[in-house]
């Protein structure tokens, strides 16, 4: 296989930090002596007291231990805000672009400091202190970043809950981490419409559903009013009304938790991925600088949401630690029309654009209209994240949005990795559409077969990482055993990513997608088990099985098999009800694409559902089902094939 390759554009080559040789040398150093390498790189962060220990990590069974810079002390908020005041006080820290075209705001580092410190003092008044957990359920407004940074300033552990999640999902996350305060907004705005948030919080907290919550802080972002619960709810502006901007940052140990972020796994409830302070800040800041080849005057725009890890590492912590101007966008790429992204790029003279394949495909579906009305000549580098980018979308992004002069950094990473692990760093390498290419410094990716045997040469297998890097998650909140079990038990002495990958004859990495029961729908990570448990919670559903199938726009679509309880009529009406039910129980991002009625599901004699078969039927590849001899009742399969929906 010889992949089409694009050279790094000349202008980028001339100004980039790296070239193939400097990349190779630095990578070699990082692998040969990680201790010395990270001791040096750790200095990019400001420490209150320096570290003498650097790396103390062990992936061995029963001895799992991940510590970086353990005896150093620092504060993440100080690194993102205070330390820039002397040199960059008047520089724009955040550009906010609202949902409507003519709504925007510029916030300097000095203003950021004032906003964050005042809000931190407000949280203090509510009793928030070091080690407490605070949930954040906010639209894409600067206050979402203020809230995160204010928590970090106090040493409180934030847990951002994506604003698209429903009341049930909020309650689960709040209860798992025992949050004391939840910060929200009356409404967000997306695509010209208001999105009610406060009512979702009220519903999540109704009765005594979330007993640990003492207060709800509500930002008044739009003119819509909702009831405030006396004694519990407090307006953001009233809370900070008498607060000043004097709020000394708490001194934190490098291994104190900075935040929890819930993500989906292949089984059970969402996992509270825990990131700590020192290693995470070093890694987020360093990867941001190298992957996007950041220059001092760059305007950088990551079009993700702060509800996901991309928003944490590459809208807030990475860029602000580097003193970079970061753009936050409240709206959607298709409002008022598909030319919006290009127009925002021109208006704010954006140099770096980081977005997801699903957004690119949505724009591409409208022909070249996305390029109308903008020049996009300020762009220098463009990124992609969240799912494999198909070569067609890659080329469209490259030619139409980037005018064939901006490299695309296809960044592979995960909530658990804290930062980017594999990418085509400018200008370390040529680019191959669809390939994430090369590991970041200190990162040792490899492939293993299903028995854990390491594979070499050009081949395909399960993607593992052989040694620790500073940005790695340390545990799952309240469930260290599950952490060990999920990532360190399938294959011994390595971190298992859950992804499959291919390495080509040049040693470049191609991510092929999840090898577990995790779906990637429009770049959103969803566990099939989560969707199934939402479905079986409905009284009409006896059993449900959820699988993914290839979807042109979303990457993967959601295909559901449902067995109804005896006596219930399986009709279109019920189908609609179940679709609404999942949206309400979990989130609109989990909306089923197909619901097939299944009088029976293919099971082994021991009762295990054979998802391999269900996946094939959903993908319309039913002619080659492989071995079905272990099925308890093989006739079930014929009936499912006959009534399949994705034709
Ligand atoms: C999963 C992690 C990384 C931040 C956003 C998603 C898939 C992510 C790529 C890429 C192919 C990718 C993987 C991974 N993924 N980036 N560039 N190419 N696949 O974080 O929600 O934790 O999801 O997203 O399958 O395991 P996440």
Automatic annotation (TrEMBL):
GO process annotations (BP): acetyl-CoA biosynthetic process from acetate
Reaction catalysis annotation: acetate + ATP + CoA = acetyl-CoA + AMP + diphosphate
Binding site residues for ATP: 386-388, 410-415, 499, 514, 525
Record-listed Mg(2+) binding positions: 536, 538, 541
Record CDD domains: ACS
AMP-binding enzyme C-terminal domain segment(s): 530-608
PANTHER family linked to this entry: ACETYL-COENZYME A SYNTHETASE (PTHR24095:SF243)
Species, as recorded: Aliidiomarina haloalkalitolerans
Acetyl-coenzyme A synthetase N-terminal domain segment(s): 23-80
Binding site for CoA: 190-193, 310, 522, 583
Alphabetized GO MF terms: acetate-CoA ligase activity; AMP binding; ATP binding; metal ion binding
Keyword annotations: Acetylation, ATP-binding, Ligase, Magnesium, Metal-binding, Nucleotide-binding
Gene that encodes it: acs
Modification N6-acetyllysine, positions: 608
Enzyme Commission number: 6.2.1.1
Protein name per Swiss-Prot or TrEMBL: Acetyl-coenzyme A synthetase
Record PTM text: Acetylated. Deacetylation by the SIR2-homolog deacetylase activates the enzyme.
Gene3D superfamilies: 3.30.300.30, N-terminal domain of ligase-like
GO CC annotations on file: cytosol
Similarity remark: Belongs to the ATP-dependent AMP-binding enzyme family.
Superkingdom assignment: Bacteria
Cofactor(s) annotated in UniProt: Mg(2+)
InterPro entries named among the record's database cross-references: Ac_CoA_lig, ACAS_N, AMP-bd_C, AMP-bd_C_sf, AMP-binding_CS, AMP-dep_synth/lig_dom, ANL_N_sf
Function: Catalyzes the conversion of acetate into acetyl-CoA (AcCoA), an essential intermediate at the junction of anabolic and catabolic pathways. AcsA undergoes a two-step reaction. In the first half reaction, AcsA combines acetate with ATP to form acetyl-adenylate (AcAMP) intermediate. In the second half reaction, it can then transfer the acetyl group from AcAMP to the sulfhydryl group of CoA, forming the product AcCoA.
UniProt domain AMP-dependent synthetase/ligase: residue ranges: 82-466
């Amino acid at each position: 296989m010889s992949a089409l390759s694009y050279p790094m554009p000349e202008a980028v080559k001339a100004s980039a930090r790296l070239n193939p040789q400097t990349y190779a040398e630095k990578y070699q150093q990082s692998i040969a002596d990680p201790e010395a390498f990270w001791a040096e790189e750790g200095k990019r962060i400001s420490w209150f007291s320096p570290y003498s220990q650097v790396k103390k990590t062990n992936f061995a069974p029963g001895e799992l231990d991940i510590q970086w810079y353990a005896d150093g002390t620092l504060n993440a908020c100080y690194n993102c805000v205070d330390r820039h005041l002397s040199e960059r006080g008047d520089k724009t820290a955040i550009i906010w672009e609202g949902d409507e075209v003519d709504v925007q705001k510029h916030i300097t580092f000095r203003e950021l400091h004032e906003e964050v410190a005042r809000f931190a003092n407000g949280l203090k008044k509510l009793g928030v202190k070091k080690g407490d957990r605070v949930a954040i359920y906010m639209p894409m407004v600067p206050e979402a970043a203020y809230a995160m940074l204010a928590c970090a300033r106090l040493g409180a552990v934030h847990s951002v809950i994506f604003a698209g999640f429903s009341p049930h999902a909020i309650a689960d996350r709040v209860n798992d981490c025992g949050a004391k305060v939840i910060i929200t907004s009356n409404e967000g705005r997306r695509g010209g419409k208001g999105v009610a948030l406060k009512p979702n919080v009220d519903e999540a907290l109704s009765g005594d559903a979330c007993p640990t919550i003492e207060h709800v802080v509500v930002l008044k972002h739009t003119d819509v009013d909702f009831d405030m619960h006396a004694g519990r709810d407090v307006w953001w502006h009233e809370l900070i009304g008498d607060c000043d901007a004097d709020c000394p940052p708490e001194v934190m140990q490098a291994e104190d938790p900075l935040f929890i972020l819930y993500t989906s796994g292949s089984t059970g409830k969402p996992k509270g991925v825990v990131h700590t302070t020192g290693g995470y800040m070093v890694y987020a800041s360093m990867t941001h600088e190298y992957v996007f080849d950041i220059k001092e005057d760059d305007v950088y725009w990551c079009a993700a949401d702060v509800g996901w890890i991309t928003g944490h590492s590459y809208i807030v912590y990475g860029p602000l630690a580097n003193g970079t101007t970061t753009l936050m966008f409240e709206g959607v790429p298709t409002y008022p029309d598909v030319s919006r992204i290009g127009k925002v790029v021109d208006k704010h003279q954006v140099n770096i654009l980081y977005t997801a394949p699903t957004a690119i495909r949505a724009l591409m579906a409208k022909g070249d209209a996305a390029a109308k009305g903008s020049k996009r000549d300020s762009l220098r580098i463009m990124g992609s994240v969240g799912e494999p980018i198909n070569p067609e979308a890659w080329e469209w992004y490259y030619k139409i949005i980037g005018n064939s002069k901006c490299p695309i950094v296809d960044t592979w990473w995960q909530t658990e990795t804290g930062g980017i692990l594999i990418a085509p760093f400018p200008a370390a390498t040529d680019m191959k559409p669809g390939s994430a290419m090369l590991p970041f410094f200190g990162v040792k990716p490899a492939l293993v077969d299903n028995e854990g045997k390491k594979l070499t040469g050009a081949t395909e297998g399960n993607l593992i990482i052989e040694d620790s890097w500073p940005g790695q998650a340390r545990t799952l909140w309240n469930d260290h055993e599950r952490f060990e079990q999920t990532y360190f038990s399938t294959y011994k002495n390595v971190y298992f990513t859950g992804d499959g990958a291919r390495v080509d004859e040049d040693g470049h990495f191609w991510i092929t997608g999840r090898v577990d029961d995790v779906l990637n729908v429009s770049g959103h990570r969803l566990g099939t088990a989560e969707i199934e448990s939402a479905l079986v919670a409905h009284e009409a559903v006896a059993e449900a099985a959820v699988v993914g199938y290839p979807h042109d726009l979303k990457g993967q679509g959601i295909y559901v098999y449902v067995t109804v309880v005896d006596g219930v009529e399986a009709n279109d009406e019920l189908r609609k009800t179940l679709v609404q039910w999942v949206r309400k129980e979990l989130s609109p991002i989990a909306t089923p694409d197909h619901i097939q009625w299944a009088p029976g599901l293919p099971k082994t004699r021991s009762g295990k559902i054979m998802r391999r078969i269900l996946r094939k039927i959903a993908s319309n590849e039913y002619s080659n089902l492989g071995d079905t001899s272990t099925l308890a009742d093989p006739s079930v399969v014929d009936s499912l094939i006959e009534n399949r929906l994705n034709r």
